[in-house]
Design a protein that fits this description.
The structure is a single chain. By secondary structure, the protein is mainly β. It has a single domain, classed as Electron Transport, Fmn-binding Protein, Chain A (Pnp Oxidase, Chain A). The chain is 15% helix and 44% strand. It contains three helices and seven strands; from the N terminus they run E-H-E-E-E-H-E-E-H-E. It has a six-stranded antiparallel beta barrel with strand order 2-3-4-7-6-5. A hairpin with a 2-residue loop joins strand 3 and strand 4.
């Protein structure tokens, strides 16, 4: 069990703060529905105004977005140096640009997928909601679990 006295304080971020934090990182997790079940994929993204862009190719993500454009994207960061962590979630609709669109070449400058080969589709997430939280970390935050309350299967 964790004592409430050591739980980090969560601060609610404004949409403006969320967009600023999103622009300071480039890796997030895209949540889509695959065969009726949730699935999550890491993607390199870029903030474009108040939307998110990422490149992808044919495969599970494209199939999922084609079947159901409702998606969620989460990005976060932890700074032990400054004692803070944050998490932002964007929920909305994914729109796929045609593969021959000029916009692919115009907007992807600086957008480098981990696997750049075959990433010829540009997806824009049009947000419906943008929410975020910031946490103040404290070195004294630890899990305090007495041995008799812990799962003992690995110990026996």
């Amino acid at each position: 069990m964790r004592e409430n006295a050591v739980a980090p304080e969560a601060g609610i971020l404004t949409p403006e703060q969320c967009w600023k934090l999103l622009s300071e990182t480039s890796v997030g997790r895209l949540a889509v529905t695959v065969d009726g079940r949730p699935d999550v994929f890491p993607v390199n993204y870029k903030v474009d105004g108040e939307s998110l862009l990422f490149r992808t190719g044919a495969g599970t993500k494209m199939d999922a977005v084609g079947a159901d454009p409702r998606v969620a994207m989460e990005a976060d960061a932890v700074s032990a140096e400054f004692g803070i962590a944050w998490s932002v979630v964007v929920k909305g609709r994914a729109e796929v640009a045609p593969s021959d669109a000029r916009v692919l070449n115009e907007t992807v400058r600086g957008l480098f997928p981990w696997q750049g080969v075959g990433k010829d589709r540009l997806v824009r997430i049009i947000p419906e909601t943008v929410t975020g939280r910031r946490f103040t970390l404290d070195a004294s935050m630890t899990w305090r679990i007495p041995l008799d309350e812990a799962i003992r299967a690995g110990l026996e």
